Amino acid sequence: MHVTSISTSVKFGLRFVGIWPGLPYGTFTWFMYMTSLVVIMYFEYVYIFDHFDVDNISNLIDALSITLACSSGFLKLISLWSHRRIFYDILLAMDEDWSDVLGRDRTVLRIMSSNANLSRHFSNVLISINATAAICYSASSFSRHSAGPEENVNNSLKVLPLKMQFPFEVNASPLFELLAVAQFLHVVSIASLVAMINCLIITLVLHVSGQIDILRRELLAVYCDEDSQRDSIVSDIRLLITRHQRIITFSDNIEELYSDIALMQFLSNTVVICCIGFTIISSLAKDGATIVLLKSAVFYVAVTLEAFIFCFVGEYLSAKSKSIGDAVYESLWYKLAPAECRILLFVILRSQKRLTITAGNIIDLSLEGFTSVMKASASYMSVLHAMY
């Protein structure tokens, strides 16, 4: 399969969890990785239940924020795995679109290549941001016990990157170092995989937007040749209608693939943004605020960016789908016979039903939805701050 729109980093992430089609032992790879996530989340939730103390709500919120973020990534991977057949159909459709480019002019190739390059740049940037946030979160924990001989003597000052409750003593070396490295790799991997899922929806939406741009260009150009035969024009219109239907089918597959993931994103981001914001505000008046800011600021940016990406791609896809009807109206439809014009009416009517991505078939992903998430997070954060 030669899908050139998907970046190498996204392909590597999909292969890492065994979701990319055609992998040997893909199911076994996915099962082993998800099993490791279940074990890690178990110890995280044990810590939260054992330290559920309202008097120390700052520590509780800090542990809850990273645990919810990891749980959200876990559920997203399950949803992506359960819809892998749809994902394979999407990859096949993308592969067919790229194969079709070879028989068309260079302008079409330029449009598709431009969107593919843009998706690769976005993928590299977003994965880098999430990996940096994970590294900063882990490094802040290591910095608590890395200085001074007195601290090295007192093993109780050792702090793991993730707050977990183990049924055994973890401060003794080399067990502590092994657990710290394992947690560090876990945080970086789950952050990168969550970014990979976000990059994948950007890649898919940019690909379908490229197909819409090609369709609009051909709608504007199909009537330019006055010497064209009527039968040829009608056959061209039929071909464009078929391509429009392919775009609609591709968009529906994206919606089915990401509807549940988007709902998880809305719910988790609202709570996680609230928790991280509360952690930052409550730490400003305490000692060691610099370490907390280092730990939480980049994490806050990464989580907020996640919510914005999903809402923006939904808004972008809706705006692109509406432009198909505008392209039909701007074409030379008035030079056609009335019977041929009526064919175009169906294209205009269908394009009025905009393509969109929903969160669990409840609400459409849009910039208005992003503002709702931020408002809800700010409201919950103010309530927690008042209680604290």
Would you mind describing this structure in some detail?
With 388 residues, the chain is mainly α. It has one domain (8-387). 77% of the residues lie in helices and 1% in strands. It has helices at residues 8-16, 26-50, 57-82, 84-101, 106-142, 149-153, 175-221, 230-283, 289-330, 338-352, 367-387, and strands at residues 358-359, 363-364. A two-stranded antiparallel sheet has the order 1-2. A hairpin with a 3-residue loop joins β1 and β2 (363-364). α3 packs across α7 (175-221) and α7 packs parallel to α9. The chain is elongated, with a radius of gyration of 25 Å.
- Helix count equals 11
Category by helix and strand content: mainly alpha
Poorly predicted regions: 145-156
Summarize the amount of helix as a percent range.
Answer: over 70%
Give the overall average pLDDT. 80
Strand content: under 5%
